[in-house]
Amino acid sequence: MAGVLAALLCGCRTDYTRSDQEHLRTLYYSNRLADAAAFSMKMSDAEDGETSRNALLWHLEAGSVNLDAGNFDDALTALERAEKLLWLFDRQGHIRCHEPGALTYRGYRSDRMILGMLKFFAYFSKGELEDALVEVRRIRSGQYQYLLRESDPRLREYDRENYGKKVPPYRIGQLMRDNLNRGTFEAAGMQKEFGEYRDRLRPQLAALFNPLAFYLSAVGYYWDNEFDEAALDLKYLHQLQPGNELFNRDYATVLRLLDEKLPPELEKMKPWNYSLTDDLAVVILAQGVPPGWKDRRATVRLPDYVPGHWKFSEPEFVSSAGLRLSAAAGGETFRGSELADLNAVFRDEFWQLTMPSLVRSASAAIKAMTAENNRAKVALAALLASKDFEGKALAVAAAQARVASTSSVSIDETDWRRWVTVAQQYQVLHLPIPQDRKVTVEVADAKGKTLFRRQLEFDRDTTRAVVYVREIGGKFHLKQWSTME
Asked: Are 417 and 105 in contact (CB under 8 A)?
């Protein structure tokens, strides 16, 4: 009671929970953006200066909600708070991504990339192009640090060697070499979900490397007229999505500008007939609800091991309506292409990284408890075989209790925390700003029915522009930003 009273007197930290996030989700997806923005900012303000538990999550939520609500200064404040925490978590030069079940939410790689994209938008809203491009360069730096220094090179080699084949992911294959790990994995009861993932044709580069960062980086280099750097980003995009027409056409255009040899499959690709540097508008459509977590229970029963009562989290996906993005200008129509799908990214991260880690952690807990149980049994047997002594009955009872308490192990690796107010899918297109400075942006459903259309007009001196359309619960919110730099 004294401790509780002291905490009350000093003003204890508010513990925002899953129910608060659900309330925010309800406000946001019912398009009560002003209420959602105020509530999210209240949480971010309360967590300002904190470094543990869910502080990062609330800053991220406040950043995206306030940007969608048009509160760009508040959005930037919240995003910068989140960025400081990520710097703290990653300050040793290694991106420390979140593992389900950890007390403090450290964020996923996609969180870091989307944060940078939203900061890019926030600076663009102020007409501060150079600051906006700094954010893109930061995204790129983190992407390449992970790609070239932190990710398992054997995973990338495995994917390249098995390109176009139906094979299990590299780390799951490694997992199966150990009987305990294999038994734990099989006990999870996710054979159906795993089979659906395993039977996809393997790309050269896993989706967990996320095309969003590569493409934003390439656009930034278009605007800086640094096409040699853009070509490097486009090379990886071609490996990630070899059938993406926008990426391929950009890549073919840039390689021709650099007078470099094209891959055979792109030799007939027609280049863009307009500048990628000046008078260019980029249109991004964000739609849907991002993936989350749901809990699953399993009991691991294997010969020579104590039972493991295992709770863990698996991905929960929400289906998203197929939307079609297009823009018309100067008598031409330009079609959107997939930029990123967080469902695909999350699925890749789960099977390539998270699930193997969860299995190894559960197996280690089962192995450790089995060793404890064996020691307890040996101690009990020795005690029972010993001569009678005063207090032996109590000692035997304690030893028996020790055997019982180590006869199984409970493992909790569940989590609920994901950034819920960002989109599931992103589409992108670019087009030249025409002489009349008018561009019409349109979103249609899968059957071609127009759901949203708006004609935009750009200032005569606009050189670069970004149009961001966010679909929220079936409604569309458009932001138009431009610069004369």
From this structure: yes
First to last CA, the chain: 62
Tell me what the mean pLDDT of segment 258-263 comes to.
96
Query: Sign of the CA dihedral 307, 180, 175, 107?
Result: positive
CATH number at residue 89: 1.25.40.10
Residues 407-434: pLDDT tens digits?
A: 999 999 999 999 999 999 999 999 999 9
3-class SS of residue 49: coil
Q: Is the residue at 58 inside a domain?
A: yes
Over the stretch 1-26, which tens digit does the pLDDT of each residue have? Answer: 444 444 444 456 678 999 999 999 99
The CA distances from residue 24 to 61, 65, 82, 327, 466, in Å, are 9, 9, 18, 32, 27
pLDDT, position 13 = 62
From CA 146, how far away is CA 144, in angstroms rounded? 5
Would you say residue 348 lies in a domain? Answer: no
What's the token pair of residue 11?
């003003």
450 strand-pairing partners: 444
Number of domains in the chain: 1
β-pair partners for 412: 311
pLDDT of residue 10: 45
List b or e across 432-457, with b for residues whose CB sees 16 or more CB atoms inside 10 angstroms: bbbeebebebbbbeeeeeeebeeebe
Residue 35 lies in domain: 16-163
Nearest to 247 by CA among 266, 261, 221: 266
* In contact, 23 and 11? CB cutoff 8 Å: no
Residue 151, in any domain of the structure: yes
Is the full-model pTM beyond 0.85? yes
